[in-house]
Specification:
It is a single chain. The chain is mainly α. It has one domain. It contains 5 helices and no strands. The chain has helices spanning about 5-15, 20-40, 50-65, 70-100, 105-130. α4 runs antiparallel to α5. The longest helix has 28 residues, at about 70-100. It is elongated. The two termini are about 25 Å apart.
């Protein structure tokens, strides 16, 4: 496809020029899969009840599913979710490292999730930035 045709499609469907929602969606789903796969092994060590973790996984999946290039509010919600998740998982990674060790499984799961949400924050911010242009 040439650039003119892509621009015509973008303007017709109201897509921001730099839309990275598909990337953010994939990162959110990857994070949800990691969270749900490791939950049974880490439940006793988490600072929240298992129900809270399950609700967070479901909410993350819903927010990923609602992401749309035409939904300006949901693009902002994704930016907020990425920021909150990055802060939360990195905080708990540091706390786990201080209390236990570098070899602790909870540390690595939290650190990997923080990195995933760092990338989702970056791509969410790029998409929000494109809304202004």
């Amino acid at each position: 496809m040439n650039e003119e045709k892509i621009e015509t499609i973008r303007s017709k469907y109201g897509m921001p020029r730099h839309y990275y929602g598909d990337t953010v969606r994939s990162l959110f789903i990857l994070a949800a899969v990691i969270m749900i796969a490791t939950l049974p092994f880490l439940t006793s060590r988490l600072p929240v009840p298992p129900t809270t973790s399950i609700i967070a996984i479901v909410a993350l999946s819903i927010v990923a599913g609602l992401l749309s290039p035409r939904g300006k509010l949901i693009i902002w919600v994704n930016l907020f979710v990425s920021t909150a998740a990055l802060l939360t998982f990195e905080y708990y990674a540091v706390q786990t490292y201080k209390m236990y060790s570098f070899a602790d499984m909870l540390f690595w799961v939290d650190q990997i999730l923080a990195i995933i949400f760092l990338f989702s924050l970056y791509y969410s911010a790029k998409t929000v930035r494109s809304l202004a242009s």
